[in-house]
Write a structure and sequence with these properties.
Number of strands: 11
CATH superfamily: Vaccinia Virus protein VP39
Distance between the termini: 34 Å
Oligomer: single chain
Strand order of the largest sheet: 6-7-5-4-8-9-11-10
Number of helices: 7
Structural class: alpha/beta
Shape: globular
Number of domains: 1
Strand content: 25-35%
CATH architecture: 3-Layer(aba) Sandwich
Length: 236
């Protein structure tokens, strides 16, 4: 969930790694880090999320749940990553207030990646219909869910969770027990939860769900981030 009705006034910013992001004027918040938007996606979610899960699990299939589709950078980074070679990824993402396709086009993301094939994939992530599963190839299936997370029924189990809503200052309710615990409980054994946040209250919620928790060095511009790991042993 990256946007609500009040998050309507924003401008494009070129971040430190050259990739664009949006800045919400109303709430004084960036959709992705101004210190490197795509760098943040790769470092936090692909490298410290999916890659970490792969090292812990000898499996060829991985189901990912992303909270906060936003600009689509986390999904894009996963789709084009070498991390998914010889794997089958089922990627589900939820967002209550998607960014309009015209705004996505105005980011001129192709100026950054300068790869027509990759740019077409990026646009397709945004143009695929909400609520319908789409197979990009034999390795990557994709489903966008247009809903508030508090209204979503976690019937599936997930291997990796990318948690990427706006920060606590802007949307504190999304960093609460009521939202986080059902999501954390949807993790499979050996599952991984990863977020850019390092807030103490979030760390305590993750710990209370029974996950092992660690603070990691954060991406550029951020000192720390959090990663939770669900042991394959049942918690008594």
């Amino acid at each position: 969930m990256k946007k609500s009705e009040k998050f309507i006034n924003f401008k494009k910013i070129i971040t430190s790694d050259g990739s664009p992001t949006l800045y919400s004027i109303n709430v004084n918040e960036y959709y992705k880090s101004k210190h490197g938007a795509l760098t943040e996606s790769n470092y936090v979610f692909v490298n410290n999320g999916l890659e970490f899960w792969k090292k812990k699990n000898n499996k060829s299939k991985c189901r990912i749940f992303e909270m906060g589709f936003g600009l689509g950078y986390n999904a894009y980074s996963t789709l084009v990553s070498k991390s998914i070679n010889n794997m089958k990824i089922e990627y589900n993402t939820i967002d209550a207030f998607p960014v309009e396709f015209g705004v996505i086009e105005s980011l001129n993301f192709d100026n950054y990646i300068q790869n027509k094939t990759y740019y077409k994939l990026f646009l397709k992530l945004h143009s695929t219909p909400w609520g319908l599963k789409f197979d990009f190839n034999s390795s990557f299936s994709f489903l966008k869910i247009k809903s508030k997370i508090e209204n979503y029924n976690f019937r599936n189990k997930y291997d990796v969770i990318f948690y990427d809503p706006f920060g606590y200052r802007v949307q504190p309710q999304l960093w609460s027990n009521d939202i986080l615990l059902p999501l954390l409980n949807s993790l499979n054994p050996n599952g991984v939860f990863v977020t850019y946040s390092s807030k103490g209250s979030v760390k305590r919620i993750i710990e209370s769900s029974g996950l092992s928790i660690e603070k990691l060095n954060g991406p550029p511009g951020k000192r720390e981030m959090l990663r939770g790991y669900k042991s394959n042993r049942e918690i008594l």
